[in-house]
Task: structure prediction
Amino acid sequence: MLGFVLRRLIIAIPVLLGILVIAFVFVHLLPGDPVRLLVDPSQLSGAGSTQYLAQKRIELGLDKPLPVQWVLWMREVLTGNLGFSFQQRVPVLQLIQERVGSTVLLTATAVVLAVVVAIPVGVLASLKQNSVLDYLAGATSMLAISIPVFFLGLLAIYVFALQLNVLPSGGRQTLGVPPTLSDTVQHLIMPAAVLAAVLTGPYVRYVRQSMLDVLRQDYITTAVAKGASPFRVVLRHALRNALIPLTTVLAVQIPALLAGTVVIETVFAWPGLGLLVFQSIEGLDYPVILSVVMMSAVLVQLCNLVADVLAAVLDPRIRL
Amino acid sequence: MTLCCGGPSKGKYMKRTVRPRWLAILCVVVLGLTGAACSSAKSTNNKAPTTLHTVMSEEADDLNPFTPTLQGKSQILSTIGMPMLYVDSTSKLTSRVLKSWTASPDAKTITLVLKPNIQWSDGKPMTSADLLMSLTDYLDAKVSVNAGRIGPVVGLDALASGKAKTISGLSAPDKSTLVIKLVNPDAAWLPRLALLGAYWPVLPSHLLGNVPRAKIATDPFFKTWPVSSGPYLLSKFVRGQYVEVTRNPKWSAGKAGFEKVIFEILSTDQMTAQLQTGEVQYVYTVDPSDVDRIKRISGVTVASHNGVAPELFGLNNGGSVFKDPRVRQAMLYAIDRAGICKTILAGHCTTPTANLRQIAPSWALPTTGLTDYNYDPAKAKQLLKDANWDPNTKLTFLARTQRSYVDKAVTAAVGQLNAAGMHFSVRNVTTAQLLDSIGKKTGWDAFWVSGADFVVDPNEWGDYLKCAGRYPDGPNTSQYCDPATDKLFEDGLKTTDQAARASLYHQAFTKLNQSPAEVYLYVVDTIVAYNSHLTGVTVSGNLSGGYWDIGQWRWKA
Result:
């Protein structure tokens, strides 16, 4: 296993380098001049502005040829410096650190909630195939997949904040007072639940389908014939194998979620990475975009590695 | 295989699997957590009246007055600092730090005199040395992005070239007076200083006087503002989330009404929801299309003020398409601007029927000899015919996704232009693409834009029309150029005599009425909403002035 992990990590290095070269080229191909974007046209005033912008271009290193810019950027990245945000004028690492905690909290809570709900529902639906429960689970899953997340979010705000007034409508904490765990939980419930609802739909379907496949396998029949208790058969023999596809899905989805929760973050005014990525793309903030791409690429590699290791742990037949 | 699909074992399996202990425990935990949180949520919404929660129109990316400035930043800076001059809700020049501000009759010398007993939050007095240092930094193009937005001061060239360390045209003859010598006569210098006021608070020379000018823009002072002079002091700046300020006990103009004020950035839906739940008490600004919805919230007051700038279609005057003024006049007749204002903006706007970007002051606006371009599609078609307009001309309109009312107004106006025979295809672009296209001067014919302030001094419009200021060298994004109009605006700066200035601006505006530079669609009102317990709010039309009088706000139980 250790050899496998090391091999995968070594292979990941050229893959990451390739991704970063492609991302660097594509980001610089985006139409528009990031320096021009720094100053609103109404603030331009002839020679003074031209001088200021020329100075900015040099400060940001955008006056150099593209390959030179890439080498300089990589040199900084390898020393742990992700660069300086054009738009926000602070180190990118600081910017990401300020936001990543909120996003991790939101997505981790949502994923845990989704998994906790999806596994039992998926298992029950598979055990009671074609029953009312199965149809109900299927219909609810389809509903969760079909409803746009912003609509679900707005609906939740309308019901729980405006009508029932039991939860705050947005933000991560009540501003102006010292943060408390209870306050954070209150603010977290709605965005996490909405995101979880969206995730739960496909998870239920994966678990159900996977369970149905596994339950038809010979080793399940054998386990039943040997007199294993039904609980043991479902939990130890069937579910363990049925979860393998779900771990793969999670491994692919988690990195995407970290940078892709922009809609939820906007609807609930949740200060996370998604909004930062959106603003950075709009503002041609190259260092921030590249850092987030790099972070996502590393996470995808790591999560896939974890998924492979987990699959081996869950299914001893898989040899790494 | 009968495990899940019937047979004697089905019920047995189900009975065992539906009641796993861990699932029950988990449900209890989740429900308990939710219940605990829900039970205390209402108390969160009961804000102490000493803390005011407000929503800003735009995020403040930093609080540095030297870097490119957005409305959000200027709104915070005008809360924690005091500008030398600013514009009040009636668009008049005013100041909380200056006793007087005068320009000499030849418009070449400006004199600012401080009020007595103005002090910083650390108790030190504000003196003319503070004004001198602040202006020296703000006027230095190597330090400040806005330096070129105000007429040059004597000695600025020597500072820029490194031949001098100070600006010789700035002098402080005593502790309360600052004298400014201008290179050229500039009757609009003081109005411009006032319009820049929210971006240019007075800086404390006793803390920053020894910082080398090359390092002033990056000085840590601007991250925390440990000393300032406004009604509130900066206590927290959490990037992308909120800004918190606390009452300045040594504010020279009195005692601010709240112990704390919190400024947030929220989407329209969040803003409305939080206004309704009481999580926020002041919102700046409200879209016209949301006014009716917000008015229905009990306990919320909606107030507005006439806007200070039209939203418009910029035209590519650098090409040949719009060369004939009749084509531009036809566009004005083709668009039902009053209808757009009435229906899409729900009447929260005015229509500049004479197509003048300058809205005020009234002395500068001609009252006769102007053509009103009211909706008349037949006349638009006739004008196009007279101008030998080729109906097969393909035109490109660059559109950015904006607030919903803007998108609707653009769609309506472009549709009406198409109906009149001007066939625009709309290309959706980002701001970066828009600026890139305008800078290249080809590949586009029109675009939507807004902003600035056209009520304080008539020269403001001139800045957006100068031949030398065509984008990317200046703010003239429509690439308009008429040396004769430039000359009228330049002459308008040479004297402080209002009658003489009025005569020149009347000529310029009449010219621009007959030969439109752009299509001015509507002037949207500046609208705010706030909890009815909040008193003392006076709405200003200027978008940088959302909090210009925040020191006067009080909470009435």
User: Anything to note?
Assistant: The CA atoms of residues 85 and 194 of chain B lie 5 Å apart.
